[in-house]
Amino acid sequence: MNPLYIVLPVAFQLFTAVVLLFFWNKTNLQRGLSVAASITALALAAWLMAAVLQDGILVMQAGAWEAQFGISFVADAFSSTMVLLTSLAGLAVSIFSTSGIRSARVQLGFYPVFHLLLMGLNGAFLTGDIFNLYVWFEIIIIASFVLITLGGAKDQLEGSVKYVTMNLLASAIFLTAIAILYGLTGSLNMADLSIQVANIENRGLVNITALLFLVGFGIKSAIFPLYFWLPASYHTPPATISAIFGGLLTKVGVYAMIRVFTLIFIPDEFMLNLLIWIGGLSILSGGAGALLQNNIRRVFSYLIICHIGYMIAGLGLYTEVALVGAIFYLIHDIVVKTNLFLISGLIYKIKGSYNMKLLGGIYSSFPLLALMFAISFFSLIGIPPLSGFWAKLFLIEGSLDTGQYMVIAFITLGSFITLFVMAKMWLEIVWKKEGALPDKQSSTAYLAMPYAKRFALVFPIVLLSGALLFIGFGAEFILAVAKQIAAELKDPSAYLGAVLKRGTI
Amino acid sequence: MRSLIFRTAAGYLLPILLLFSVFILLRGHYLPGGGFVGGLIASIAFVLHSIANGIENTKKIFKFHPRILMPMGLCLSLFSGLSPLLVNKPFMTGLWFKEPFPVIGMVGSALFFDIGVYLVVIGVVLTIIFTILESI
């Protein structure tokens, strides 16, 4: 693959959004175009991934300005994997939305904004410039502001106020940190920063800047003391939109954190302990929150926080094995969280409620769907040989290597909490006899839907469950990718060499 | 706002402001100006016209809803960014015609990017203003 083409996953999503803008009022055409474009985007991302795995790191200097001065786009194994996962989740959500999003919302511009969001995500993963990363974050949050308020239901607006406020604050902190970093080094290119920051003598200022980045990305990825906006907002928009939020938006914060703390700021002892404790407390507080909720989407929201903790703790351990675990968890978590929110949307379509106490009887009326749910639920808990298990195995191995036994305690406790929550959910939703639903007709409304509409609701869940089974049973392939990513993160010389084109690094 | 003086003046201001906006657009490569400011000035021309003559009359100037300018402008900008890929240069590289054009001067892909921005800004501002004016 010509390195010039690595911008295509970004440009193609923008192109899709532009084409969709031409057909503002033609809702059915928009739905069809979106699915077709998402399939193409997935093919593009797979092509990029294959090229990166074969040829190594691909670099494009935008505008033909050399690195340090221009904006570099870098596709290494980590970013191309994230682009591929984004496209996969994007395809699933796009198919689901063909019957999960009402025409009224499509006419308000759901699809163009959705593809702009995907463009922002791809851009954030592919950029090699810290300020450009900020710009992509802005595109992501502006697109997500529109998506979360789209339709303007009352609780949606209430949730979006919290979401918008916290994310704007995070952006301001992130921008401040970039400004300080630029003042210290005079550079914004991440590869160049990696070299320059290591040589700065004023370590105190460097550490403060690193903490500012931690807070900025921490708010976006909802880590321990900064997560309160997430469970207050993610359950308010339609399930389709929560799926893309839950699957990808917090993960882009984690991606940025892993990238910045392995490339630019190599954490010292204090920072590593801080990351481990933040990770552990995220696991506990997210899990504790999930125990108390009855709204299934709020349960999933708290579980996002809980499982972000695993990745942050993995980063805090900072050995190659632990990073393999964190990356593997990230790969698994994007797929499983998107799928869980889609499942919650499907349950709502079938039963007309998100309340666990009122739901029930899925197994007796839809046994095959219940099987689909089981795959995601058990993958989330990490029952071997499903996908969550492998990631935790490596995280535990990493913590044994470094002697951080606290992390093992946190991980095990978090897994038990997840097990309890998911078992409770399984009992309440799937096995229990149907409760007294407020709106009994909606159950028949699902059965009365045309076959194509029902297919559009179920197929993405089957697709993502298939991906989960592949991650679980094809763990060897995923592990090879995760190992390559972790090796590249631990030793960024290949990245630096590719971006800066210097032989002396 | 239906004063005779204002209405007459707005009729003359519309072409002058549009011409001025194109001037600002073309000037913008090395000097202050560019697509964003030019687009704002052009949309001010239409807003002034609609305040003086009523929104219905302004809409008659357009044969289409100004919303369509947004994707058109984005399309132009995107393709001016992607066009260097055809000659095997990175995304967003400036490509220039060898000879200057009369009146306009040197023309490069950056100009088409700016024209795209110009159209998007007109589209966005007029969509917002028209929506607000219609709901009053």
Automatic annotation (TrEMBL), chain A:
tRNA processing among the record's keywords?
no
Taxonomic superkingdom: Bacteria
Keyword tRNA-binding among record annotations: no
What Pfam families does the entry give? Proton_antipo_M
Recorded protein name is: Proton-conducting transporter membrane subunit
- Species classification: Bacteria, Pseudomonadati, Bacteroidota, Cytophagia, Cytophagales
Cell location: Cell membrane; Membrane
Give TM regions.
6-25, 32-53, 73-96, 108-127, 133-152, 164-184, 204-230, 242-266, 272-292, 299-318, 324-348, 360-383, 403-423, 455-482
UniProtKB/TrEMBL annotation, chain B:
* Chief site of localization: membrane
Q: Does this UniProt record's set of keywords contain Cell membrane?
A: yes
Q: Which UniProt keywords apply?
A: Cell membrane, Membrane, Transmembrane, Transmembrane helix
UniProt superkingdom: Bacteria
Q: Which residues form a coiled coil?
A: none
Topological category with respect to the lipid bilayer: Multi-pass membrane protein
Which ranges does the record mark as transmembrane?
12-30, 36-56, 68-87, 107-133
Q: Where is the protein found, in the record's own terms?
A: Cell membrane
Member of which family?
Belongs to the CPA3 antiporters (TC 2.A.63) subunit B family.
Protein name per the record: Na+/H+ antiporter subunit B
What is this organism's lineage? Answer: Bacteria, Pseudomonadati, Bacteroidota, Cytophagia, Cytophagales
